[in-house]
Design goal:
Alpha-Beta Plaits; DUF2007; 5 strands; two-stranded antiparallel ribbon; Signal transducing protein; alpha+beta
C-alpha cells in the first residue's frame, strides 16, 4: 500500500479516487472524516489521503494524477467572439449568453 495524494479538499480526493477506480487502480481514502477535527488535531494530520492497494499500480497512479493536475493548470480564460464576454477557463459555456465554447 502506498499513499499517492493528500489534500485539504475532501471532494478532490474523492474525485481522484473515482478516476483511479475507473482506470482499474484499486484504492481507498483515509482521514475523510478526520478533516472535521482540524483545529483540535494538527491540520496536516487530518488531511484526507488517497492510497493505492498494490505497489505495482504506483506508476499508473502517478500518470493519472499527472494528467489530472495538468488539466487543472491548463485552463485559460477565453473570450466568446459573439458577445465579447471574458470567461474563466474552467467553464465550457459563456456565462453571459450561454453558448458553448465550440459554437
Amino acid at each position: 500500500m502506498r499513499c499517492v495524494f493528500t489534500s485539504l479538499n475532501v471532494a478532490e480526493v474523492g474525485l481522484l479516487r473515482g478516476l483511479f477506480e475507473s482506470e482499474g487502480v484499486e484504492c481507498f481514502t483515509r482521514n475523510e472524516q478526520l478533516s472535521m477535527a482540524s483545529g483540535s488535531v494538527p491540520f496536516l494530520e487530518c488531511q484526507p489521503e488517497l492510497w493505492i492497494l498494490k505497489d505495482e499500480d504506483f506508476g499508473q497512479a502517478q500518470e493519472i494524477l499527472a494528467k489530472y493536475q495538468d488539466k487543472e493548470r491548463n485552463y485559460q480564460a477565453w473570450i466568446y467572439p459573439y458577445c465579447g464576454e471574458k470567461n474563466e477557463g474552467q467553464f465550457g459555456a459563456c456565462w453571459k449568453c450561454g453558448h458553448l465554447i465550440d459554437e
